[in-house]
């Protein structure tokens, strides 16, 4: 069916200057596979260790002796690696460029200033009782303080849990409760596309539902008049004035936790993905340099919010560990105009630009003129992340944004992987639009069939990883059994990614999307079970089943089948109320695109919902419903097809 797309060879100048060329890549793959301790020990020198590790890799994916440990006896501090070690030669270089929601707002923060501000914030945390190992919740807009807060936690050994500003008070409360967080850092409001996001008000509401938080640090960003709970809330400016700008970085074991980040799975509530100090920072730094072929002094812009893993690894930790200038953008791609991304690139002379296909698709719809009105001549590399990039969007990115002169790195990875695992290397890998191409050194992929049988050569199946890499998550916070169950039990001895994947005759990998009950909406992960739970909380709802469907801009949209209680009349007002209910429970990003009233859901005789059928109806693949004879009541399918929402 599929026609092989064109190949874009590595430009000769890139091959000549790259950190890793083709031969280097092949050699590194072999070294990482055959002599892992020697290879990773050598690579670990990129970090500044208080004690250099002598134990490098200690891993088993098997149930009996399951363990994942890297650089175990090494001692280091993440904030010292991201700041202090650059001071001797880079104190006056820009660490962070902040671009606000309004084009008139921007700021440059040097490494020297970053040091001072992070130390101050760290001292404020300490003065307010935050200790090594405590969990600190960060709910901030994309302002430099978000990076200061993360680095301040890392400096004193506190574990941060950043929550994206689009999540609701209920979601915040759930995450605070799950990790037993005692302290919250937030701002009065955020600004996105000219609209205000009521961050502090959301925190106040969340804290009505959960106990155990004894302090809220409030950063004044917009200056809005927000609630202030005496005894609990602290004003950041006031607190910062009381402490010094010197804070010794806490020596941390490599396997000590650095952060928790919640992400959706196919079942239950979001999982607290835990990443560690040594392995995570190493992987963020190593991949940032290799994948983007990063050189000191370059301006690097990852458009992801720090509330997502991409913002953690390539907005903050990777670039700062490498002494880069990282750009943090508070706004959105279409405010005040649809040229904003490209204007920001010109304004700050961005050299490497890393964004998501959903943003590209929405801008592509606006035509080429808003792009062509800008110069973009500072750019030398483009990146994509978060979902499969369709070849059409890839070509537009390449030809229109990149004027046909810039390579694109399509990077595949997950919250769980800490950093990129599959990606072209600019100086080593020929590109094929729509393919994330090849695994990085140390990443051992396998494609298996449903029973776990290993598939060789050109094939398609489920994507597994057979060995560990340093950036791998170490546990689900508070539930190690769930960690093993979720990722290592489906195909024993292997990490199962949850993604489907094709490998072509050249050994290139093509991610086809999730094969579990996770949907990817605008590059954001959403568990269908979470949305269903939110819907059934409504008094009028008896049952709900949620699936993904192809969406031109978002990649996938959310399609909900809802069965109402007996006697309840289906109205547009109820539909609106149900969408509002989901926004309230989870946040605006989980709002269903389509709600179809379903008098009945297709169930097996044992009561299991046949999602395969619901997916096909949502995708409008009505000819491919398959065998419905095992259903308890096959006639419900006819009704769903007949009344399919447009
Ligand atoms: O399905 C894959 C998709 O996003 C999932 C991971 O989502 P999350 O943990 O939120 O992390 C997103 C940012 C790293 C994966 O299981 N995905 C991510 N990148 C790509 C991708 N699918 C195809 N191509 C990619 N480049």
From TrEMBL:
Cofactor: Mg(2+)
GO aspect biological process, one term: acetyl-CoA biosynthetic process from acetate
Keyword tRNA-binding on entry: no
Coiled coil: none
Reaction equations catalysed: acetate + ATP + CoA = acetyl-CoA + AMP + diphosphate
Domain AMP-binding enzyme C-terminal: 530-608
Positions that bind ATP: 386-388, 410-415, 499, 514, 525
GO molecular function terms noted in the UniProt entry: acetate-CoA ligase activity; AMP binding; ATP binding; metal ion binding
Record-listed CoA binding positions: 192-195, 310, 334, 522, 583
AMP-dependent synthetase/ligase domain ranges (all copies): 88-467
Sites of N6-acetyllysine modification: 608
Function statement: Catalyzes the conversion of acetate into acetyl-CoA (AcCoA), an essential intermediate at the junction of anabolic and catabolic pathways. AcsA undergoes a two-step reaction. In the first half reaction, AcsA combines acetate with ATP to form acetyl-adenylate (AcAMP) intermediate. In the second half reaction, it can then transfer the acetyl group from AcAMP to the sulfhydryl group of CoA, forming the product AcCoA.
Family label: Belongs to the ATP-dependent AMP-binding enzyme family.
HAMAP family tied to this protein: Ac_CoA_synth
Protein name, entry field: Acetyl-coenzyme A synthetase
Gene: acsA
């Amino acid at each position: 069916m599929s026609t092989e797309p064109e190949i874009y060879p590595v430009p000769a100048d890139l091959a000549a200057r790259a950190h890793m060329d083709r031969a280097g890549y092949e050699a590194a793959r072999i070294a990482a596979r055959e002599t892992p301790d020697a290879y990773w020990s050598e690579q670990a020198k990129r970090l500044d260790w208080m004690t250099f590790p002598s134990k490098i890799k200690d891993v088993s994916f098997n149930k009996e002796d399951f363990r994942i440990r890297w650089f175990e006896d090494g001692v280091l501090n993440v904030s010292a690696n991201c700041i202090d070690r650059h001071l001797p030669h880079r104190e006056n270089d820009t660490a962070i460029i902040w671009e606000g929601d309004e084009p008139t707002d921007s700021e440059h923060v040097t490494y020297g200033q970053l040091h001072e501000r992070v130390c101050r914030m760290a001292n404020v945390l300490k003065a307010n009782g935050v200790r090594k190992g405590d969990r600190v919740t960060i709910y901030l807009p994309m302002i430099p303080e978000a990076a200061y807060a993360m680095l301040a936690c890392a400096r004193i050994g506190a574990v941060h849990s950043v929550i994206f500003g689009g999540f609701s008070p209920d979601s915040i409360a759930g995450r605070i409760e799950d990790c037993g967080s005692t302290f919250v850092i937030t701002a009065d409001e955020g600004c996105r596309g000219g609209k205000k996001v009521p961050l502090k008000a959301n925190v106040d509401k969340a804290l009505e539902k959960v106990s155990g938080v004894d302090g809220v640090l409030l950063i004044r960003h917009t200056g809005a008049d927000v609630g202030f709970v005496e005894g609990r809330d602290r004003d950041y400016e006031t607190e910062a004035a009381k402490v010094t700008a010197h804070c010794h970085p806490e020596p941390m074991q490599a396997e000590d936790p650095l952060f928790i980040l919640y992400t959706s799975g196919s079942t239950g509530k979001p999982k607290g993905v835990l990443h560690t100090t040594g392995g995570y920072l190493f992987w963020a730094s190593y991949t940032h340099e290799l994948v983007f072929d990063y050189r000191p002094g370059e301006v690097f812009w990852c458009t992801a919010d720090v509330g997502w893993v991409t913002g953690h690894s390539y907005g903050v930790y990777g670039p700062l560990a490498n002494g880069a200038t990282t750009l943090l953008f508070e706004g959105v791609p279409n405010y005040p105009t649809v040229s904003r991304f490209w204007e920001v690139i010109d304004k700050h002379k961005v050299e490497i630009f890393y964004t998501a296909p959903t943003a590209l698709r929405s801008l592509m719809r606006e035509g080429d003129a808003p792009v062509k009105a800008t110069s973009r001549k500072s750019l030398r590399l483009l990146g994509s992340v978060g979902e499969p990039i369709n070849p059409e969007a890839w070509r537009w990115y390449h030809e229109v944004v990149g004027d046909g002169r810039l390579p694109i790195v399509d990077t595949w990875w997950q919250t769980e992987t800490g950093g990129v695992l599959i990606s072209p290397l600019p100086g080593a890998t020929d590109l094929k639009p729509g393919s994330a191409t090849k695994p990085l050194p140390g990443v051992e992929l396998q494609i298996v069939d449903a029973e776990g049988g290993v598939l060789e050569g050109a094939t398609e199946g489920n994507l597994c990883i057979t060995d560990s890499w340093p950036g791998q998550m170490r546990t689900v916070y508070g539930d190690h059994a769930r960690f093993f169950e979720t990722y290592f039990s489906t195909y024993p001895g292997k990490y199962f990614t949850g993604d489907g994947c094709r490998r072509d005759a050249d050994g290139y990998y093509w991610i086809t999307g999730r094969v579990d009950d996770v949907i990817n909406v605008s590059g954001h992960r959403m568990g269908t079970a979470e949305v269903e739970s939110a819907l059934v909380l409504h008094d009028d709802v008896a049952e709900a089943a949620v699936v993904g469907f192809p969406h031109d801009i978002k990649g996938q949209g959310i399609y909900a089948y809802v069965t109402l209680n007996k006697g309840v009349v289906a109205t547009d007002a109820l539909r609106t109320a149900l969408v509002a209910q989901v926004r309230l429970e989870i946040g605006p990003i989980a709002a269903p695109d389509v709600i179809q009233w379903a008098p009945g859901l297709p169930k097996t005789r044992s009561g299991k919902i046949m999602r395969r059928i619901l997916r096909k109806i949502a995708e409008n693949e009505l000819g491919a419903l398959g065998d419905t004879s095992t259903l308890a009541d096959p006639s419900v399918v006819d009704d769903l097809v007949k009344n399919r929402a447009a």
